[in-house]
Amino acid sequence: MSHPHYQKQAASLSNTARPVIINVDDLGLSTAVNDAVIHLAELGRIGASSYMVGGTITDSNINRLNQLNVDIGLHLDLTGIFASALRGSLKSIIIASYLRRLNPMQVSDVIKQQLDGFEERFNRAPVFIDGHQHIHQFPVIREGLIKELTNRYSDEIAKGMLSARVTTPLINDVKSWIIYILGGYAWRRSCQHHQILTNDKFGGVYGFDADRQQLAMLWKKWLQAAPCHTANVSPTLIMCHPAVPESRSNSWQDDIKAAREIEYKWLISDEFAELLAQYEVKLMRWSDITLTS
User: Fold this and answer.
1) For residue 43, is pLDDT > 80?
2) Using 50, 70 and 90 to split pLDDT, how confident is the model at 230?
3) Which of 52, 161, 194, 214 could pair with 28 as two cysteines, CB 3.0-4.6 Å apart?
4) Is residue 5 part of a domain?
């Protein structure tokens, strides 16, 4: 998506640079995820992370993320760890939203609770909004979310200080298009209409079944597809889900824990750093998508 006043760092980018936001999802899910975010930020490999309000994070972690200038956003959650009457499987939420069986008032209440929880924990508004399993773009949910964002953050939106994730596919793979078809176009149009800044293309989608070598090939494909810098076009967003491997195997559990640990080892590797250099990736943050007027 183009934005007329994008962007404050654009002038410093060469035409061969690829502006990319690397965003770690699921901050707050576990200590292993939080530690991964901090270490990757220290290595200069990521610029943003989205926080699950049902999770936990220490004050010292928050202070460190602030020191590292990591943009923190809200990872809106109806299918994960946030306890609510609406919580359910991804399949059940998709069906309920598309059949308009979700109660808009209940949806609105959960959105408010999670934004309140975010503000209370971080003492500020989120820099950006996205959704666990992309629920933020589903019918009923997206309408409630837009309404609450525009009511609550009208000043931030007017100043270009609040962004949102859109899922326009970076590469033509089936899973990316399924995600986008599930409300991605309508969500993108809604953000455009309400002048909420967004990323351009969206990558990082795979089945969480890749080994290290397959993951390396996926990242090569994503970075190769990321557009080079063009005036007025926002950065590509690539999501990832790393977690630091732990010696105590039962200290926390998650459906994709093994994939998270493989991702972490890949993202801290020299091979990944070389790939970033090879494709002239310019690591961006959500806050770089900003209005200059």
Assistant:
1) yes
2) confident
3) 52
4) no
* pLDDT tens per residue, range 260-286: 999 999 999 999 999 999 999 999 999
Contacts with 202 (C-beta within 8 Å, 6 or more apart), sequence order: 165, 166, 167, 168, 169, 170, 176, 180, 236, 237, 238, 239
CATH number, domain with residue 45: 3.20.20.370
d(CA 72, CA 122): 9
Question: Token digits for 91?
Answer: 């399949």
Q: Average per-residue pLDDT in the chain? A: 93
Does a structural domain hold residue 1?
Answer: no
Is 193 among the domain residues? yes
Q: How many domains does the chain have?
A: 1
Phi-psi region of 280 (alpha: psi -120 to 50; beta: other; left: phi over 0): left
- Residue 156 covered by a domain: yes
| Structure token digits, residue 208 | 């969480």
pTM of the predicted structure, to 2 decimals: 0.94
